[in-house]
C-alpha cells in the first residue's frame, strides 16, 4: 500500500515481532522431516504458484522434504486454522496472501483469527503489481476507456473476486471509489472458476497477480487494461501502468509470503527466514517467476512483519473511506 503510517511497536509473539532466539537452533533442526506448506486456496492461483515456486528448493535447503497442501474454504480461514492447529514445531507453515494477512482482517473478514497475533513472519516470496483484464468482447482497450464505458453503463458491468476482503474485492472497490464508477461484485471460490467465466465473457473486469492471467493475455483470450503500479511491469512492457491511465498511486501490489504459526521458537523462525532468502537468490527461480509475470522480492522476517502491520492499518483507513465491508 502507499499510505505511509508510523512504525508500530507490536506486543506478543505474533507476526509483529521476532525476538532474538533464546535457544540456538541448529541449521539442520528440520533435516529429514516432512514440512507441509499450506495454501489456503484452490490450486491455480497466485498463492499456489508462489508456494510451488519455492517448496522443492526450500525443503532441500533445510535438508527436508517440503510438500504443498491446498486447504481452501471460508475465505482462507480453513487453511489458516489448519496451520494454527498443527504442532508448532516448524513442520507446518503457511503460504500467505497479502489480502488474507492484511485486508480481510482489516474488515473483520476472517473471524477471530488475527494474523498479527497468531502468525510469525518468515519472509516474502513475491511482490507484484496486479494485472487488470477484461474479455476481448468488452469495448475497452485500456483502463481509461473501461472507466468511460462503466460511467456510460452504471451497474451494468461486473467484476469478479475471490470473496469479501480479497485483493480483487478490496482493490476493485477502491478503484470504483477513485474512478466514480458502479460495478457489480460477483464473488467466486477460486481463480479457476473466475478464469473460466472470464474467458466465456460472463465477467467484464478482473484484477489479479499476473501469473494466472499472463498466458491468457498473451494468447488473446483476455485483454490487459493496465498494471496497478506507477511504472510498467518489466515482464509486461506493452501493458500501460495505472499512472499512465490517469490513476496514480493505487498501491495495489499483490505479495505472497511464508508464515509460521505462533509458538514456533524464534530461533527456528530466523533459520527458516535465512534459508528462504537463500533460495530466492537463485536466478533460476527468479527467471521462472518472471516468465509468469511475478517478481521475486525476498525480505527479512522483521520487514515482512512491519509490512503486515502497516498494510492492515492502511486497509482499515481505505475501507472507512470507500465504505468497504465484509458483507
From TrEMBL:
It holds the Pfam family TctC. InterPro entries: BUG, Bug_dom1, TAT_signal. PANTHER family: BLR1237 PROTEIN, TRICARBOXYLATE-BINDING PROTEIN. Belongs to the UPF0065 (bug) family. This is Tripartite tricarboxylate transporter substrate binding protein. The lineage of its organism: Bacteria, Pseudomonadati, Pseudomonadota, Alphaproteobacteria, Acetobacterales.
